[in-house]
Each structure stands twice: as C-alpha cells, then as structure tokens.
Amino acid sequence: MEDAAHHRHSGQHQRILPVLLLTTVFMGIEALAGWFTHSLALWADAGHMLTDVAALSLSAFAMWMATRVSTPEKTYGYHRAEILAAVVNAVILVMLTGWIVYEALERLSQPPHVQGLPVLVVGTIGLLVNGVSLWLLTGTAGTSSLNIRSAYLEVLGDAISSIGVILGGGIIWITGLLVIDPLISMGISGFIVWRTWGLLSQAVNILMEGVPPHLNAREVGRTMAEVAGVKDVHDLHIWTITSGRDALSAHVIVPKGQDRDVVLGKLEQILHERFGIDHLTLQIVEEREEFIQPQ
Q1: Which of 64, 69, 123, 208 is the most buried if burial means most Cβ atoms within 10 Å?
Q2: What's the confidence (pLDDT) of residue 248?
C-alpha cells in the first residue's frame, strides 16, 4: 500500500511541476504587462496566478511530506500537511481579492488609461497557458486528494479569469470604455472568493475532525447496528485523516457468546463496500460485560 501511495504521489508530481513552471513564468509576464498597460484586471489575474504558484508549490511540498513514514511522535505521518496547505492557499486568495476589490472601487470614479489591445493579447496568451496546464492536470483532477483538486480549481479559475481579461481588453480596445477594467477585476475577485469558500470549508471541517460531507453518521450507525450479531453501537466517531482517507471508531455491543471475530469481519466488509471506510478502530464487547465509558 505504501508503494502504491508513493507511485501515485510521484505521478502527481510529474504533472504538477510543469504546470508550476508555466504558471510562474507567465505570472511574471502578466504582472509586467499590467504595470505597462495600467490594467487592474491584468494585475488581478497576475495576483491570482501568484496564488496558483503558491498553491502548486504547497501541493508539491505537501505530497512530498505525505510520503514520509509515520513516527512515534507523528502516528498518522504527515498526511495533514496537504490540508494545512489548502487552508493557507484559501486564506491568501481571500486576502488578495480584498485588496483587488479595494483598488477597483478606487478606480471606478477615476479609471486610469488602459491600453486595450495589449491587455487582449496577454489575456489570450494566458488562456492558452491555462489550457495547457489544465490538460497536464486532467489525469489527476479526479483524484480524491484535496490538494490536487485545489490545484486543478486554481488553474480552472485562472482560465475563467483570462476570459474576463480578454473581454475587458477587447471592450476597451474597441469602445475606449475604461471603467470596464475595474469592473472586470471585481468580477474576477468575486469568482475567486466563491470558488475558494467551498475549499476552505472542506479543509476546516477536516481539521475540526467533522464527519466527511459525503457520509451520514446516523446512516453509518444504523447500518452497523443492522449487521447480524450486533446488539448496539455506541460512541461512533467518523472523521477524515486526509482527503480520501476516512477513519471510524466505535464501541460495538454483541450478545453474550457471539463470535466477535465474525462480527468484526462483517463490519469491516460492509464499512468498506458501502462507505469506503478502511481505517477502523472497533471495540467489541459482550452485552453483559461491565463496560466503562471513556472519559
């Protein structure tokens, strides 16, 4: 299992690193273009790309950390590193969009002169770069890794932002309507916040050891209680160690004389097949045994 995980992370690295290089190079180009053309929309998109660079870098680092073996001090290993990285990415995005919106509001009353044609050209190149990056990440976008999905969404969001930049540059070039630039930048910012909120909520839920959103604790408990040989289920806890790796612990009461190993095997099977939970800690006790609830 460890070899399979190492191979999976290695394959993801091979796709993320070229995307990281492409994004870093074009981010610099777009930032310079925004400075020369006075386009806040280009600055917004370059800032978005800066967060992409941070996201992709943190993703690569977190995947490397996740391959490290567990220790007596870190019994779960370093799997939570990717969740921390996702939280940092989301917070940076929200802070950046706050600055962009502030600048856009300042520019609405007195929009500076923006060169439409260069903005249009740079936005088109940015869309092509994002298209290549999305193609490179397509093979990993369906993974359960929160970090990989985060990186994919970062690039997808950039592609949509680039479309906004293209539209803004085209409108300014054709009509000379300068106010469109701060309006486009505000639209990009709103999209970034909307897209980031779900990711942040999911990452925080994992850190708070909440029940994974795709699971219903009551349904899991009922299913366990319906297994032949199970009398009752107490102290059921379900949480996520890292994206794609859910865990469960519970106390299971069985009738006196019941074969505990048989019940354990049935529970392991149904929890794996129906809910995809493999990391289990089940304490099975007979109905009439003295049972002390943990404090």
Answers
A1: 123
A2: 96
